[in-house]
Structures are given as structure tokens and as C-alpha cells.
Amino acid sequence: MAFPAQTPVxxxxxxxxxxxxxxxSIIQCxxxxxxxxxxxxxxxxxxxxxxxxxxxxxxxxFTAKENAIAAVVAASAKKDAADKGIDPKKVSSCACNNCNCx
Length: 102
Known about the structure:
Blueprint: H1 12-43, H2 48-83
Helix pairs in contact: 1-2
């Protein structure tokens, strides 16, 4: 008789750790992509104007991802505070990085 497979159940803290670790991996991949591939490819563009335009789009995309990661970290901090009996509203979070991607 076979035993049914069971999905492991993570605690809230373990789930948050997995999410944060995943975000770290994404950032590392983004940095590697930018430094090892994109910079070389951008230099192949014919004019400095084209290079600047592509670089701006890439940096705006990276900024959006960084802001999303900051939101995940802020949510994690607020949850941790709430779990410790601290009012989550007292946890500071700054969303001051705005990118004009027009």
C-alpha cells in the first residue's frame, strides 16, 4: 500500500525566509545579467542616445523590482512586529524611490 504524498507545511517565519531568500537570488541574477551581459550589449548600440535610452529603460525596470522587494521586506517587518505585539503602524517604511520611466 502506497502512502499519499504530503506537502510540507511551513510556518509563517519559514515562508517569509523562503520569500526573502528568493528575492536575494533574483537581485543576484539581475546584477549578474546587468554587469556581465547588458553593459556589453548596450555598448554595441550605434549612438550614445540609443545607449542612454536603453540604459534608462533597464534601470527603471530594475528600480521597479527593487521597490517591489522593499515592499516585501516592509511587509515582513510589519508582520514580525505584529507577531511581537508591536503596532505595525509604528514600523517605518519608506517608498521614496520613484522612477520616471516615460
